[in-house]
Specification:
two-stranded antiparallel ribbon; 16 helices
Length: 464
């Protein structure tokens, strides 16, 4: 059974998960007397341990047969098999091989189609120890209504990475907050300090005012202890982030099977667009979707080669054109034709890094959109802005500018693990009014996951 990581559920399984609205989500439910979170975590761990043991046994029996079968294919496949045996190959070697393969591949069009038949994913997740990190992740999943039998290793490991990725933001935000809260009831002075902490975490003025106004109204109605105040704060943060998500009508963004879905990745240079595209391609393959990549960033040196490396890692075909000053729209034109003829679920389009003030590049983006509208009028199109969390308010200004000219439908926040400005998620939601769709908290190929506000806020305010 395939686990759909976009939808966070097993494909074909009648699994009902509660999608919590911030107004009725009770974060302390995992501590209620009727629910033993530790026992739940133990049951989940025992099941995952047994499941991984069975997978390891199956893999040991099939690996050699698979490699032998692949070796009998084309010379390209044989070369990839050799690379699979040697995971220490450098990125430069992979780039050279990708270039050689594209050069030798026949093509009927101006763009070449680089087929990558092997999912070269040596980062298969493994179950760690039954420790505090596991129990915290289990508690967060249990609080969302998940059953112990439905937990996956990927979800447990991802939540651990998310909490670790938000550590810098949490240290500057939560430590000060908890010091001020103590065990005493909430006071206006504590709220003033909270306002400073939120602004320092780049939550933005609008989100900070929304949260503080709600807290002050509640404080005027009744006395709130520190624990109750923290729970109410979590609810308000979730509410701010959930507003544009709710308005979009889509809680978790996922391709629609049997239809063409086209996702454009846009943003300035250096935010991680190509890396994000590669991780999304891998996410799609792991979740049972067919995928195709259009290397439409023809302006940056070595951009096409970098995309081909990511395609190779995930076993996804790349449509590219290495010609000097190649037309990005022409690459997208060829990619849409290939996607339609092959019945591809998800076409991922890498675009050139651009500043919103560079009108020629913005015009190129509009041209790409016109090609998509003309050739695939019925496709499900998403325009996702990739945002570097470490840029904070500068990133927010980018989002505002791109939203006007690029027809943005969502945001992908990257590099949370290297930033103390994780609060920018609140600013994006409240000021740019854009739904956050994916979030990255690490450099690994699996370190990009669908965004869920409850998990983000719990990781942000984890007090241990």
């Amino acid at each position: 059974m395939v686990y759909d990581e976009f939808k966070r559920q097993n494909v074909g399984e009648s699994l009902i998960k509660k999608e919590f609205d911030s107004a009725n989500l009770e974060s302390d439910s995992m501590k209620s007397e009727a629910f033993d979170s530790l026992q739940w975590a133990k049951e989940a761990y025992a099941r995952l341990k047994q499941q991984q043991k069975e997978i390891n046994e199956d893999n040991s029996l099939t690996d050699l047969a698979t490699i032998d079968e692949l070796s009998e294919r084309s010379p390209i496949s044989s070369a990839l098999v050799e690379d699979r045996k040697d995971f220490t190959a450098s990125e430069e070697e992979l780039r050279d091989r990708a270039h050689d393969q594209q050069t030798n591949m026949p093509s009927d069009t101006s763009s070449s189609f680089l087929s990558n038949p092997i999912v070269n994913d040596n980062l298969q997740t493994s179950l760690g120890e039954f420790d505090e990190a596991f129990t915290w992740s289990a508690e967060v999943l249990a609080a969302q209504g998940m059953k112990a039998k439905d937990v996956s290793v990927d979800e447990i490991n991802w939540l651990g990475k998310l909490r670790l990725g938000l550590e810098k933001t949490r240290k500057s935000f939560v430590t000060g907050l908890l010091d001020k809260l103590g065990d005493d009831p909430l006071t206006p002075e504590v709220l003033d300090e909270l306002e400073t902490l939120l602004l320092r975490a780049d939550a933005g003025v609008v989100a900070t005012d929304q949260v503080l106004d709600a807290l002050r109204r509640r404080l005027n109605e009744e006395v709130m202890g520190s624990e109750e105040g923290l729970r109410f704060l979590k609810d308000q943060l979730c509410k701010v982030i959930n507003t544009p998500i709710s308005q979009s009508g889509v809680d978790l963004l996922a391709p629609t099977k049997g239809e063409l879905n086209i996702w454009l990745l846009v943003g300035v240079n250096g935010v991680g667009k190509t890396t994000t595209l590669g991780k999304l391609a891998n996410l799609a393959i792991r979740s049972g979707y067919s995928a195709l990549i259009a290397a439409a960033d023809t302006f940056r040196a070595a951009a096409v080669e970098q995309v081909q490396i990511w395609g190779d890692r995930s076993g996804v075909t790349v449509v590219a054109n290495n010609s000097v000053n190649a037309d990005p729209a022409a690459v997208v034109f060829d990619a849409i034709g290939a996607a339609k003829s092959k019945g591809i679920d998800l076409l991922l389009v890498d675009t050139a890094g651009r500043l919103q003030t560079k009108h020629n590049l913005m015009d190129e983006l509009e041209k790409v959109r016109r090609i998509i509208d003309k050739l695939a009028p019925d496709a499900n199109v998403e325009s996702l802005l990739v945002l570097d969390a470490s840029q904070g308010q500068n990133g927010l200004r980018q989002a505002m500018a791109f939203a006007k000219s690029a027809g943005l439908t969502g945001v992908v926040i990257t590099k949370l693990d290297g930033s103390s400005r994780g609060g920018v998620a609140l600013a994006v939601s409240s000021e740019a009014n854009l739904p956050i769709r994916f979030i990255g908290a690490g450099e690994g190929i699996r370190d990009l996951q669908p965004f869920k506000s409850f998990e983000f806020v719990e990781a942000l305010l984890a007090n241990r």
